[in-house]
Amino acid sequence: MDALTAWLEPAFMRRALVALVALAPACAAMGAHVVQARLSYFSDAIAHSAFTGVALGLALGISPMATLIGFALAVAAAIVWFKAKGKMPPDAVVGVFLSASVALGLALVSITRQTANFTQYLFGDVLAVTRQEAGVAAALCAGAFLFLGLFGNRLALAGLSETLARAERIPVRRLELVFALLLAVLVAASVRFVGALLATALVLAPAAAARMAAVSMRGAFWLAVGLGLASSVIGLYVSFQFEIAAGAAIVLTAIVGFFVCAVVGRVRKGA
Predict the structure, then answer these.
(1) Rounded to 5 degrees, what angle do the CA atoms 158, 161, 162 make?
(2) What class has domain 2-270?
(3) Is the pTM of this model over 0.85?
(4) How is the chain split into domains, by residue range?
């Protein structure tokens, strides 16, 4: 038993575990709606906005995490606003903002010339998480599950049929905006843990896996949450044992879960 718990003896490992156990299931839970509503490209755009958010913080001499979250919120709100206008296909709107975010970030980097400071945000460092950041992750987890508990069914209906949702007097645009802003904060926080290059995987991989293996929307939701939790714990353990980058180990574990669920779903359909 000591061999199984020895990896939790360092305080930084316990803080990392607390942060991941909070954030990964919350990302997976939000991801269940992202996959259902075909918003995968949206979460990717938010993750890429990290480049500009961090560059703004470095250029202004303030906390890069503060500007990262602020810029992610601005991008999320802008995408929802342009989508609501309905003059461009949703994927085109997201693509424009994704490209703009990356281009603006690179431009700011070339001006500030602080490329070395970007490493921790590109690849993340969950082992350097502070007690306060772990607490923020727990608060975000509580907020995400509270929102989904209160409005998850309405979001699901809007994802299936916006016309029917409006007929039921559901404020679709308002819900979409709140969801987008909450997702933006979660993805931005994930950048601190696993990096901008992998943050989207915490949202998409467990949810996509659950979608293939579950037989109902409710089942897909809870399976995604379980996969997000399992991949974070197992990935962190693998990272410690084999000295692999924590973010990469967590995401690769989630990808393994994706392929397992793909096989399970295939077998179920053939049965």
Answers:
(1) 60
(2) mainly alpha
(3) yes
(4) 2-270
